[in-house]
Amino acid sequence: MAFASTALPIGISTAFSQPAPSVNVQSAFQRNLNVHLICPDCKEIPPNLVENFSDGDMVCGSCGLVLGDRIIDTRSEWRTFANDDQGNDDPSRVGEALNPLLDGNQLDTMISYGAPGSNVGRELNRAQNKAVHDKKDNELQAAYAKISQMCERYSLPRVVQDTAKDIYKKVKDNRKLKGKSQESIEAAAIFIACRQSGVGRTFKEICLLTSVPKKEIGKVFKIIDGILLELGTPNNAAGQGDREYQAVGTNAEDLLNRFCSHLGLSTQVASGAQYIARRAAKEGILAGRSPISIAAATIYMAAGLFGEGRSASKIAERAGVSDGTIKTSYKFLWEAREKLVDPQWIESKKASLSGLPKV
Question: How much is the pTM?
Answer without folding.
Answer: 0.59
